[in-house]
Amino acid sequence: MATKEEENTVFDVEAANVLTKELRDVFASGKTRSYEWRISQLKSIVKMCDEHEEDIVDALRQDLSKPQLESIVYELTMVKNSCTLAIKELKHWMMPEKAKTSLTTFPSSAEIVSEPLGAVLIISAWNYPFLLSMDPLIGAIAAGNAMVLKPSEVAPATSSLLAKLLPEYLDCSSIKVVEGAVSETSALLEQKWDKIFYTGNGRVGRIVMAAAAKHLTPVVLELGGKSPVVVDSGIDIQIATRRIIVGKWGCNNGQACISPDYIITTKDCAEKLVDSLKKELEAFYGKNPLESKDLSRIVNSNHFSRLTKLLDEDKVSGKIVYGGERDEANLRIAPTILLGVPQNSLIMKEEIFGPLLPILTVSKIEDSFDIIKSGTKPLAAYLFTNNKKLKEQFLMSVSAGGVVINDTTLHLAVHSVPFGGVGESGMGSYHGKFSFDAFTHKKAVVYRSFVGDASVRYPPYTLGKLRLMKALITGNVWTILRTLLGMS
């Protein structure tokens, strides 16, 4: 039980200042730099996941009514996999990388040393509140930093559980959890950090970046955007629709940064696509999806109202071809398909982040590229086609954080590729070694001995020295020989 004094403690700028000083002192001691410390923390996270699986699943159910399978597979298992990979590869990641040197510095050797940045701040999101808290935390630990995790207050059960479990399993002098809302986040952002990692929306991303700029703090911003799905003709439409459904409604009922936001297809293909989506959605979630236990609910009443506003706009409400049912008391919205919505409607201007899926039609599939490029660069872009030339055109024409051909969202699970945005969908990336690199400074180190001290670099400067220095910098052996021999 917390004492009255603890309950009344206010986390303000002064408290945040004390906290960051404590973290900097711990980091300065060198404690977090050791391989042993990093490995012990990573193993403890795996242990925590194993011993508290039911508690984590229950917290996610309280926050989002998240189905057990989604909680275990898309949150818990992915966190454990990130730890397992880091434990296996950490020695290799920590090793200095050999680098080539040039004739200019001969004789010499060089390497790139990965050093931890210091004290870092991680601000996580509510839609995957366990995964998006722990995944960057794993990268920060693997890199050897001290850190603060600020879980999202919009997912209070998960935030409370993290605040309880992390001090029990991890080194609470180096890894701290701060709960709270805007005032606590603002107090943290007032401090000087060595890196800030933020997952969320672009509006708050701009606030984070502005706060970081005061201290010239580097940031990783994992944002979002309107992730398009382009569906070509001549494909297996059933498989395509099943993969779109699992990426849209099977990922937190559309409340995921990489969920398909809208579909573009040809007029000829649209009817078949809608029919297939209806059939598969009914097979997955039944005739009354509002009662399905396999769909998450909308996170809170504010987001329910936001999504309702998108659906009820005059130019959109008549375009619903499937779904649209709502249960405000239980914060549930059924999977909803809309056909032929205007591009100037609200639903096409902002990220949907919910179970609504508009379908736009074009005369020829290549026209979809112009629609995508007319908006901001998305976090993800998806293409379903068997046409090799169209795949090449798509990759060349569409700029996105990540691209998947003939599926959706799967790139999130591939740790050998970076996950991150571009433009307004974010900056920086993580996952696998990219998480380690996100919290690491690559320090250049050049080694020389006292042998081979050439007078050419020292005054007095002569025309001969100038010629030789120019030749050395070019690195061309024949030019150097000709200069040494006095040839023009």
From TrEMBL:
Keywords: NAD, Oxidoreductase. SUPFAM superfamilies: ALDH-like (SSF53720). It holds the Pfam family Aldedh. Residues 25-445 form the Aldehyde dehydrogenase domain. It comes from the Eukaryota. Gene3D superfamilies: Aldehyde Dehydrogenase, Chain A, domain 1, Aldehyde Dehydrogenase, Chain A, domain 2. One of its GO terms (cellular component) is cytoplasm. The active site is at residues 222, 257. InterPro entries: Ald_DH/histidinol_DH, Ald_DH_C, Ald_DH_CS_GLU, Ald_DH_N, Aldehyde_DH_dom, Aldehyde_DH_NAD(P). GO terms for biological process: aldehyde metabolic process; response to abscisic acid; response to water deprivation. The keyword Transmembrane helix does not apply. It catalyses: an aldehyde + NAD(+) + H2O = a carboxylate + NADH + 2 H(+). GO terms for molecular function: aldehyde dehydrogenase (NAD+) activity. Belongs to the aldehyde dehydrogenase family. This is Aldehyde dehydrogenase. It comes from Populus trichocarpa (Western balsam poplar). The lineage of its organism: Eukaryota, Viridiplantae, Streptophyta, Embryophyta, Tracheophyta.
